[in-house]
Write a structure and sequence with these properties.
The structure holds two protein chains of two kinds. Chain A is an alpha/beta fold. Chain A contains three helices and six strands. Chain B is of the alpha+beta class. Chain B has helices at 5-12, 27-38, 41-44, 48-68, 109-121, 124-137, 149-157, and strands spanning 16-24, 84-92, 95-105, 162-167, 172-181. In chain B, helix 4 runs antiparallel to helix 7 (149-157). The longest helix of chain B has 21 residues, at 48-68. Classes of the chains: A alpha/beta, B alpha+beta. Chain B: InterPro entries: DUF6272 (IPR046239). Chain B: GO terms for molecular function: kinase activity.
Chain lengths: 126, 182
């Protein structure tokens, strides 16, 4: 499968979707006005990835902050990953947050409460 | 007494003004405004936690404007400039205040009022529950927001929203919103 890499911009995160290695990374900030436009291709990629995956998937999310329209798209990403997990494949989410960043910690908890895949909350020192 | 935008504006400029903009709210303006506040020394010296909260809530307020403003009265805007809005970020004592102002159609007053009153009436726990419910079950609106903006602002700031509708003339209503981050 084609690897997708999107460099970060002032409003969109760095993204790497690497099907061969089973690595999914989202880093930076996500505040586009039109989140669907940005996330739709990534969600489509995950749909395709999910249909043929046979190895482990590691998901690293290290967001600085995100807007509410991104929050729904990020949930859609997790839903695709949950489908993979339900099929019996190993999926692990590493949710990174800065040590005093309660908002980002809580956002991780939000997703964890909706999505049934293992989440690891990883605190980073400033 | 008739409502005066200038007076409203002067009122909101209290404290140390970090950013003050009125005009067309566009995606480029949002990027520039964020860049400006990121370079503000006031915020650079803040704890990470507060700084990010201010950025986050500021973006949410601006994008609310971007998605929802209605046409301003013709005499106020040049060349039929669209998306007229005002945003002011200032540090007033121990808190940051984000004030926004924009015109809304009369027909929307009740919807906005009900929405904010509802959000203001909820406890922290209820806000979180409602946020999760809308995020997991709600549909995207054509504007992409899906009704989470106000909830998110209250959840992040922990403060109630202060708002007011001013009658500008028979057809135009000016909507003023203040958000406090402490």
């Amino acid at each position: 499968m084609e690897t997708i890499v999107r460099e970060g911009t002032p409003k969109t995160p760095y993204v790497r979707l690497d099907g061969e290695k089973g690595i999914i990374e989202i880093k930076g900030r996500s505040i586009p006005e039109n989140s669907i436009e940005f996330y739709k291709p990534l969600i489509d990629w995950l749909e395709e990835y999910g249909s043929g995956v046979s190895s482990d998937t590691a998901v690293n999310v290290q967001l600085e902050y995100f807007n509410t329209s991104s929050s729904k798209c990020i949930l859609d990403i997790f839903k695709k990953l949950e489908n993979i997990f339900k099929k019996g494949q190993k999926v692990e989410v590493n949710w990174y947050y800065e040590e005093d960043d309660e908002d980002m910690f809580e956002a991780g908890e939000d997703y964890q409460s909706i999505i049934n895949i293992p989440f690891k909350m990883i605190e980073m020192e400033e | 007494m008739a409502f005066s935008i200038t007076e409203w504006y002067n009122d909101k400029l209290e404290g140390e003004v970090i950013l003050n903009f009125n005009g067309s709210i566009t995606p480029d303006l949002i990027t520039e405004a964020l860049d400006t506040i990121e370079n503000s020394l006031n915020l650079k010296n803040e704890k990470n936690k507060i700084r990010k909260k201010v950025y986050n809530v500021f973006v949410e307020c601006l994008q609310n404007l971007y998605h929802h403003v209605d046409k301003a009265p013709v005499e106020l805007i040049d060349n039929q400039e669209n998306n007229f809005g005002v945003i002011i970020l200032s540090k007033d004592g121990s808190f940051y205040r984000i004030s926004t102002g924009n015109f809304v159609d009369k027909s929307k007053i009740n919807v906005i009022k009900d929405r904010i009153d509802q959000v203001n009436s909820l406890s922290d726990k209820e806000i979180k529950m409602l946020y999760l419910d809308i995020m997991s079950n709600g549909e995207f609106s054509d504007k992409g927001g899906g009704g989470l903006g106000m909830l998110d602002i209250v959840r992040k700031t922990g403060n109630k929203l202060e708002y007011y509708f001013y009658k500008y003339n028979d057809s135009h209503i000016f909507f003023s919103l203040d958000v406090y981050i402490s």
